[in-house]
Write a structure and sequence with these properties.
The chain is an alpha+beta fold. It has helices at 2-8, 22-33, 44-56, 94-124, and strands at residues 16-20, 59-65, 78-81. Helix 2 runs antiparallel to helix 3 (44-56). The chain crosses the membrane at residues 104-124.
């Protein structure tokens, strides 16, 4: 969540930000830990149930502060919806970047060679 804030609002003067999946943890805790004779050791089943509990909740507990420790609007110690990214980042492939760089270099080289040719041709005649 905090990484999302930095990604989408890079100019926000953020001095403190943390988030946790408190609703998911609370549900897991009440189901598996806060019971008579809770498990004494961590197991694959518990890890799987905790992961499922985190995935099944759409809420997180957010706490973000900016300048002078003022809470950011909407993110001051409260339960909020998990950020959803609807439009994935489109990465340019390495080949595209190299090709576009070569195209620029080629066009500059051709222009330079053309200018040199015109200069030499004008000196000869």
């Amino acid at each position: 969540m905090c990484l999302s804030v930095h990604q989408y609002y890079p100019k926000v003067n953020l001095t403190k930000c943390w988030s946790k999946q408190k609703p998911g943890w609370k549900r897991f805790y009440e189901t598996y830990i806060k019971v008579p004779n809770p498990p004494s050791r961590w197991s694959d089943k518990l890890a799987s149930e905790l992961r499922k509990s985190y995935q099944d909740t759409d809420e997180i507990y957010a706490y973000c502060r900016g300048r002078n420790s003022n809470p950011l609007p909407g993110l001051g110690k409260k339960v909020v919806s998990k950020p959803v990214i609807d439009l994935p980042l489109k990465h340019k492939s390495e080949c595209e970047r190299i090709t576009s760089s070569c195209d620029k270099l080629t066009s500059c080289s051709l222009a330079f060679m053309g200018a040199v040719f015109v200069l030499i041709f004008s000196c000869i005649y």
